[in-house]
Amino acid sequence: MHGHLESPVLESIAKRHGKSPAHVLIRWDLQHGVVTIPKSTHEGRIVENARVFDFLLSPEDMAMLDGMNADSRFGPDPDNFNF
């Protein structure tokens, strides 16, 4: 994921919205109907991660972010997850 956070496309969208790249990715998930729970143990970061409800990504922003798809995963496959 860290590689995506440094993407010029993502950085450009984040700058345009006055948000961090992480905020943009959380917002992108929300606009796709994906429930995302960012992990943090730092109170300030937890509060900051909740600041994604005061902006919307445009259809153009969403399309640019969708175009970054590399069909990769950074966690377990939810379709084959063992408890």
Structure description:
The chain is mostly helical and 83 residues long. It contains 5 helices and no strands. It has helices spanning 2-5, 8-17, 21-31, 43-49, 59-66. It is globular. The two termini are 24 Å apart. The mean pLDDT is 87.
Number of helices: 5
How many domains? The number is 1
Order of helix and strand elements from N to C terminus: HHHHH
Q: What amount of the residues lies in strands? A: under 5%
The share of residues in helices is: 40-55%
Shape: globular
Compute the CA-based radius of gyration. 13 Å
Q: In this structure, how is the largest beta sheet organized?
A: none
Structural class: mainly alpha
Mean pLDDT: 87
Total number of strands: 0
List its traits:
single chain, 83 residues, mainly alpha, 5 helices, 0% strand
Characterize this entry briefly.
The chain is built from 5 helices and no strands. It is mainly α.
Q: SSE layout and pairings?
A:
Elements: H1 2-5, H2 8-17, H3 21-31, H4 43-49, H5 59-66
